[in-house]
Amino acid sequence: MTVQDLETFYDYNYWANKKILPTISQLTTEEFTQPVAGGYGSIRNTMVHLLSTEWGWLSRCGGHPRGASLKAEDYPTVEPLLKDWKKVERYMREFLSQLEDEELNHTIEYRGEGDKKRAMPLGELLHHSIIHGAHHRGQVAILLRELGYAPGSFDILFYYAEKHGVPAW
């Protein structure tokens, strides 16, 4: 894996966010915060978890510090979430632009479940962050559909097709 690979995957990650966030912006505050289903219970909770986790991995890897995990209750409406997504995207792109390929193999120590010490290469942790985002965006898409919204397609195939100016199918 190279820094350029990560930049491409984060480009996809933010492209996909830009596809789903406008649909989330259409939600009423009640729809945004109401328990629907899934592991985090609401669209807001899932999106805050996703944002907090991406920022958390960035911070652990030496990027802009996050501090404590983000709390869903600090995002009563969609607007502050959108603002923080833009900020974290800027932090991540800046961090990636300063990395060299060799640094991706640098071992990062972090605390895992039960506060147990863990260690993995920086590149793998950032790659995990991207896959984690795709997983939870998929969950949010299902929740949006349950509420009657159509978030559209944000599969990586559509990203590549758009990037190359060709039809996906």
TrEMBL record:
| One term of GO molecular function | metal ion binding
Amino acids binding a divalent metal cation: H49, H132, H136
- Which keywords does the record carry? Metal-binding
InterPro entries from the entry? Answer: DinB (IPR007837), DinB/YfiT-like (IPR034660)
What SUPFAM superfamilies does this protein's entry cite?
A: DinB/YfiT-like putative metalloenzymes (SSF109854)
Q: Does the keyword Metal-binding apply?
A: yes
Q: What's the domain of life for this entry?
A: Bacteria
Fetch the Pfam families from UniProt: DinB (PF05163)
The entry's family comment says: Belongs to the DinB family.
Name-wise, this protein is Putative damage-inducible protein DinB (Forms a four-helix bundle)
Species this protein is from: Fodinibius salinus
